[in-house]
Write a structure and sequence with these properties.
The protein is α+β, with helices and mostly antiparallel strands and about 290 residues long. It has a single domain, classed as Sandwich (Jelly Rolls). It is about 15% helix and about 25% strand. The protein is built from five helices and 17 strands. Strands 1, 2, 3, 4, 7, 12, 14, 16 and 17 form a nine-stranded antiparallel beta sheet that branches. The longest helix has 15 residues. The radius of gyration is 18 Å and the shape is globular.
């Protein structure tokens, strides 16, 4: 049974996001936290394709972490880890996702964000569609679940309500001394832009649109700010980037017809998008074949 009511769905399309309070139970959250700890402490090998990312301040030696966990900013692409992948395939979550993008759903991207203390760790206001080759945007949705209490003090998400009704903006590197890789910020967005802080309790899950401007602040506590996230798309989506090498990657269908099967998408060659036009000039990503 979905927890997304008609009123919540209306709020999503109006504001670009909606929070489902208490969607996931404590036992599930603790299982995912324990898996993160096991990976970071070396008790479990990272799954194939998984990226365990150090914070840039740790990587550059500007901060000496007090523990292995304090070095890690996030874990990306956990699809082949059976414990973490159980988040992305949780029926409580997928029942909600279906309300936003329809019955037939595939997984685009997965990550677990750790946000340790004593580092900058900010993420400027940005739009997730920047990173995804699929369109239309209205057929893509993110889920982001608080594993522990998320507050302004430990760097909760901030959103700009209604910004999803705009377009994908060009992004740039903020003029910050320490910026984690690919933490781009949308151009033309400044400190005066109205934003809302999303404080959340463990198990609360926010669903948001890929054009919604959002980011997060510093963790000013001595604990962690942990959340687990996945992005989903409808099988109605097409691959719209100019590069057509998507057949080298298979995405997993997680709900609807063909659930569990691998899917390579459908190309759209009529109006191809050059993703490099939206990221900063000179960024290393620009030199990769996308």
């Amino acid at each position: 049974m979905t927890q997304i009511t008609d009123e919540m769905l209306e709020a999503y399309w109006r504001d670009g996001f909606v929070v489902a309070r208490g969607l996931l139970d404590s036992d599930s959250l603790q299982r995912w936290i324990a898996r993160l700890e096991a990976i970071v402490e070396g008790e479990v090998e990272p799954a194939p394709g998984m990226l365990v990312m150090k914070d840039v301040m740790v990587a550059r030696g500007a901060v000496q972490p007090g523990s292995r966990m304090e070095a890690i900013a996030k874990v990306q692409d956990y699809e082949k880890d059976p414990v973490l992948w159980s988040y992305a395939t949780d029926e409580r979550l997928l029942g909600c996702v279906e309300r936003f993008v329809g019955r037939d759903v595939f997984s685009i991207h997965t990550m677990l964000i750790n946000k340790p203390p004593n580092v900058d760790g900010r993420h400027p206001l940005h739009q997730d569609l920047l990173y995804f080759p699929f369109r239309p945007a209205d057929k893509i949705v993110a889920s982001w679940t608080a594993l522990e209490r998320v507050t302004k003090e430990n760097g909760c998400l901030v959103v700009v309500p209604g910004s999803h009704r705009g377009e994908l903006l060009e992004h740039e590197n903020p003029d910050w001394e320490y910026l984690n890789a690919a933490y781009f910020g949308a151009k033309g967005v400044d400190a005066s832009t109205a934003r809302l802080h999303l404080e959340m309790e463990p198990g609360d899950t926010v669903f948001f649109h890929p054009i919604l401007l959002h980011g997060s602040g510093r963790n000013r506590t001595q604990g962690f700010r942990r959340a687990i996230s996945a992005h989903y798309g409808s099988l109605e989506c097409t691959w719209d980037w100019a590069s057509q090498q998507f057949n080298q990657r298979k995405y997993t269908i997680v709900r609807g017809e063909g659930a569990g099967e691998r899917w390579s998408g459908t190309g759209n060659s009529e109006n191809p998008i050059n993703p490099l036009a939206y990221i900063p000039t000179g960024n290393p990503t620009r030199h990769r074949d996308v």
